[in-house]
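> Could you send the N-ethylammeline chlorohydrolase prediction when you get a chance?

Sure thing. Input:
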Amino acid sequence: MTSTAAPLDVLLLPTWLVPVEPAGVVLKDHGLGIRDGRIAFIGPRAEALKLAASEVRELPGMLLSPGLINAHGHAAMSLFRGLADDLPLMTWLEKHIWPAEAKWVDEAFVRDGTDLAIAEQLKGGITCFSDMYFYPKVASDCVHNSGMRAQIAIPILDFPIPGASTPDEALRQGIELFGDLKHHPRIKVTFGPHAPYTVSDENLEKIRVIAEELDASIHMHVHETAFEVQQAVEQTGERPLARLGRLGLLGPRFQAVHMTQISEDDLALLVESNTSIIHCPESNLKLASGFCPVERLWQAGVNVAIGTDGAASNNDLDLLGETRTAAMLAKAVAGSATALDAHRALRMATLNGARAMGLESEIGSLEVGKAADIVAFDLSGLAQQPIYDPVSQLIYATGRDCVKHLWVAGKQLLDDRQLTRMDEQQLTATAIAWGQRISGHSE
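Output:
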């Protein structure tokens, strides 16, 4: 880079820089330059200091990594956080969550719940999230206004849902929103059939045709529990994943969420179709849904990303904590202490999420030319010392309260733990008011 180039908008000078691609690399005393929302320079500190920059930020004791990518969640459900805990999945859904949704979910609920989720995620180092919930247009407006990046999955079920009385209406709304946001720099619209047991073959066929025409992704809960698979086999003689394969839905644009049950045939289907899996370990643990065999998938070459699921079943949107749980759980499930090491766990929470969403050329790693979606973790605290491998310390010894700064497309949305565009006190007050309304009427 010559001195004649336009000055950088900002030059970041952390102690460590972890690009994620190439894999396993930690750059010490390097700088990263941002220009026009993109990464314009990565190189040794001495070289970086020769460049003209409008702003220079020294970040001592900090690790710079790609922003975390939360590949599955239901943002507005943050307002149901802790509403119905310690229950099995179908009881939780049918007796508590679905009735609460029928009673409370409207545009205001989705707006306030999504804003709450966005703020929590930004403070936790998440720069991009996947959302699958009702009133997707409202959620997309929240994302647009916040400066964050997101994939909005249009929920489709065989029965009426808040905001869409039929599956066809939901699809029409989805196609319209896809068209409206096609050129949005930070929002990608996908189709979200809820699960194999709530969407018929006929509607899945429609979704497949539309997704192919628009080159859109499909995001769906699949094989969440053993019960789901067993029930499908008893009723139809076919495992849900095999059914999706027969209907032509699987492929590089398909995101299979949960996948706690994987037979040899399932694995072959996943590998052959190049389907991505979104692993949500804490929600699966809490609902006793089962364990996704992450190491087996990884060794087979399947792309595995990570998601928090909704705060109603997790109960936080803490992707760093989720990644730590994923790394620990992978070892227990594989019976191997070398399964999902810290560097691969970080890759799962960044580049693999980008790949699942079809955004790997844009985000997920720190590379020149990519969007500047970046998080700075402060590793200078007592609980992180001494530091032998900063990535190990990040995954195994660091909580999300160490997230210090965060940028999306070069815009700083978190500065020294403070949200720059959102009013945290107001968000908290709004959430408390919703909680009082919901609990006051739940008798």
